[in-house]
Amino acid sequence: MELLCSTTSLSASFALSPPPSFPVRNLGFSLSLCKRMQGTRRFMLLCSSDKMTVSVTGATGFIGRRLVQRLGAENHSIRVLTRSKSKAEKIFPAKDYPGLVIAEEDEWGNCVQGSNAVVNLAGLPISTRWSPEIKKEIKDSRVRVTSKVVELINKSAVEARPTVLVSATAVGYYGTSETGVFDEKSPSGNDYLSEVCREWEGTALKANKDVRVALIRIGVVLGKDGGALAMMIPFFQMFAGGPLGTGQQWFSWIHVDDLVNLIYEALSKPSYQGVINGTAPNPVRLGEMCQQLGSVLGRPSWLPVPDFALKALLGEGATVVLEGQKVLPVRAKELGFEFKYKYVKDALRAIMQ
Ligand SMILES: NC(=O)c1ccc[n+]([C@@H]2O[C@H](COP(=O)([O-])OP(=O)(O)OC[C@H]3O[C@@H](n4cnc5c(N)ncnc54)[C@H](OP(=O)(O)O)[C@@H]3O)[C@@H](O)[C@H]2O)c1
């Protein structure tokens, strides 16, 4: 699993645009000029041209790490907003990420102020055993960080205020169904996760009216380094893989690279506003997903994991895998977004290569 989950090392160089209190590591333009003008619209025009400064919460997570790599590869400046500097420094060592700024909560204000954009990905993982305390923290962690980020954006001086907030939410917004089909116009569900998503989204929407807000309702993200797949692969490799529960539940997936591209487009294109489903165009039932995974791994997919076993393991959290929803990326298609991975088989093949 360690081998399968290893993160690719990154050699891209990072442009520098630190807030005044951060050390200078790398220069791409006249520092004295930029320091004087930092935080002003003119600064952004003169010193960054089409380069952005992006503050990211949850940057140390599965999706965030890939996003940081992508932004870095395009020479944008990145500010990692984390709860733990030491953890983030291990994930983003200075030698591989020169110019990357890492900030704990008391420094987040310095980072948000003067950023062009904020991406909000923070939240306690949901694929654990749910206790009342965990359930509370699943919601609170998302609402708390989103609320903090929105407050910092709104508090920023107008000239230094980020112009866009891309905030994660989840397809759990729609509730679960074996028969329904959901797009961005569908109503919200009435279970716990839909309630979490409604509050999470509502908090992001409190950003000032001059800030463009894109809410990405993310499906199950497929990638080698984390998420659902990293949990499923070891079972298949032990010849013990198979559908979870009935296998009839919908599995609205997206390849991590497509999701990162979608977030990237949302940062840079003004037409990306409001709710956008972050799911591939061809969702599958979980049974099919497991069959495809088994075939890509050269392992059988014959040992179904029964509902009761998952419930014993995950408690109420088992609903995350035992129930799903069929979600279509209608907005992304309208916006002209090109999915690199439209079919789960291709996504899995690319991931396992
Ligand atoms: N992966 C998926 O399949 C999927 C599907 C739908 C929605 N999403 C949403 O997309 C976002 C990113 O997903 P991910 O898979 O990259 O998540 P992840 O790997 O679990 O990372 C999330 C990050 O959130 C921060 N975090 C964790 N617990 C927290 C807490 N109690 N309070 C505040 N911050 C906390 C951590 O950053 P620091 O330690 O640096 O602060 C962590 O690195 C999440 O909000 C998730 O709900 C993901």
TrEMBL record:
Provenance organism: Arabis alpina (Alpine rock-cress)
Q: Which PANTHER family match?
A: EPIMERASE FAMILY PROTEIN SDR39U1, SUGAR NUCLEOTIDE EPIMERASE RELATED
Q: Where is the DUF1731 domain?
A: 305-351
Name it.
Answer: NAD-dependent epimerase/dehydratase domain-containing protein
Q: Which domain of life is it from?
A: Eukaryota
Tell me where in this chain the NAD-dependent epimerase/dehydratase domain is found.
55-271
